[in-house]
Design brief:
This protein is mainly α. It contains 13 helices and no strands. It holds the Pfam family ABC2_membrane_6.
Length: 266
Amino acid sequence: MGELRAYAALAGAQIRSVVSYRTSFLVEVLSNVGSTVFDVLTVLVLFRATDTLGGFTFAEALLMTGITAAGFAVADFTIGSIDRLKTHVRAGTLDAVLVRPLPALPQLLLMDLPLRKALRVVFGFVVLGVAISLNTIDWTPARLVLITVAPLSCAVFMSAIFVISASLAFWWVDSGELGSAFTYGGRDFASYPITVYGPVFRNLFAYTLGFAFVAYQPALALLGRPDPLGLPAWAGFASPLVALAAATVAATVWRVGLRHYRSTGS
């Protein structure tokens, strides 16, 4: 109960500081939804030049974009602020976090509560809802569960990528660009049918790192389409297991990184 009160106090302080400047907050809320809007506009522009992309129609591709947009927006809203870890490591402010009798990760997340990204979450689920309405899906109990679980699994998977990428700062403080390549690059990768990518890129990101199970495989299962790349139909329902595995790896990397951390003394 004491920990919950401490977390509530941290969150309350952040909320009060953000809403104190209402105009700035409103501008940030509207500008932050821009990246998700551009993701959808990119799909629209691509389909003005072609009827299919990697063997998928606009509605089918938009379903993958919608799952990714919704899941990534939730991950970015809840965990995304961890990418400021490198700033705390460099400035030495992580020391103040570690001396408190609370786990470090929740403290860091609440110290920069990204309320400005809330509208992006709403927009992501709107895109997913539109994509579902454009496709003819034979709804079964399994697919109803899948459409509920897929965005959440995507959120857990992307959250794990955020934590792993940020944890690189424990060993390499200037790893921000490399980390962004996997977080925001992974979001872009998962927003399209993976059949559009070459074999090397596909094998590395889609299957070795698991990005194929973020949106592509769940979308195939929802649409009832066989995988052109040969994976069985049950692969579409494996996204929660892949997300759990990614979360386990992220937790391990975070714990090892914390033990490896050495203060700058500043």
